[in-house]
Amino acid sequence: xxxxxxxxxxxxxxxxxxxxxxxxxxxxxxxxxxxxxxxxxxxxxxxxxxxxxxxxxxxxxxxxxxxxxxxxxxxxxxxxxxxxxxxxxxxxxxxxxxxxxxxxxxxxxxxxxxxxxxxxxxxxxxxxxxxxxxxxxxxxxxxxxxxxxxxxxxxxxxxxxxxxxxxxxxxxxxxxxxxxxxxxxxxxxxxxxxxxxxxxxxxxxxxxxxxxxxxxxxxxxxxxxxxxxxxxxxxxxxxxxxxxxxxxxxxxxxxxxxxxxxxxxxxxxxxxxxxxxxxxxxxxxxxxxxxxxxxxxxxxxxxxxxxxxxxxxxxxxxxxxxxxxxxxxxxxxxxxxxxxxxxxxxxxxxxxxxxxxxxxxxxxxxxxxxxxxxxxxxxxxxxxxxxxxxxxxxxxxxxxxxxxxxxxxxxxxxxxxxxxxxxxxxxxxxxxxxxxxxxxxxxxxxxxxxxxxxxxxxxxxxxxxxxxxxxxxxxxxxxxxxxxxxxxxxx
Length: 491
Fold this sequence. Notes:
By secondary structure, the protein is mainly beta.
């Protein structure tokens, strides 16, 4: 805990230094914050995957405006041969309808609350070989209070269960119980948040509390140093005390938590657009990150149905790095098309040095979803494989076109290679592991079609296929397939 608090003070000092630097370099900007507290609450609470109508339902509660909105989502997906089995056997069709209802209550020009409830269902309507199932419940997604212009300054304080999302969801895309201090300055915004999970937020049962012993410190500074040019710095510290693993200690049984990761991530992002002495528009994006810390794993012996004894503890230092870079070229003529070239690489382990784990790993809060120049956001490391950037090099080529201002189509190709051959692909959705000898994992092709007839309707169609490489031995050349349709209705 002391380690986390020290990092929190360091991050807070960096945030304050950036804020003072911004104030010294530029006069106060009245447009630094959104024009209204409602706009700010909406920008902090609504995902970039969603839209809201320009004139939402507004009622007065105790003389204060309450804005009610939300989104009805009706996704369905079919996937096939994820385990590369002969004759199928793992095909399934799933649907996960949900209704998100948001409530913004503007108590004053500088004070607002945000509450979001999400009734949801997860239904496997068909599973090859049997086993259809349905679960459902209601989740308290967000519930927070924000106070802006603290003591007449550009700072704001946000308290409660709140949404953290970066534009590419490479760092985080998660609701967390936390306290967050924002800074809204001229051409510079920043925040630092500290929190841990405080209780169950869903009626789904049995549902274990996610990360109950993890304390996180999250920070971001974003600087718009020129028109259409942005530089960001990220920081995340994770202090895990879910087990406090000590040999011969009796702990609660948890099959999903067999270790502790006390890690710190830090990184930079640059993105923007420029138009040089040629007609093409060029968009660029680049992330670079490092992770350091300690990972502890344990061996457990059951002592009862609900308790285990820690019989052995092993610790390993973690040092890893990753980068993700892409450039998009947009044609100047009609019909417009855009070509995106990308490369991402996350370090792998070094088997010769067992005291150090060199493999990069993402934060666990990430979703790796974004877009290039089309309308739809998608999993840009592959809709079928959906890996994390850990011990993996990913080459990407994408060709897309905005068919109209409300329609786009995009074809994306990926090639995957492990820098260090391993029997595991972190985060992968496949039901089979590679052989740990060959480096070539395979290729994937995705088609993403988006149709947005108005701000209230969003229709997306995704089709993808992953072709197994030499790392899957005799299954080389086998295909895993996905078809996904999603209809979102905003109100």
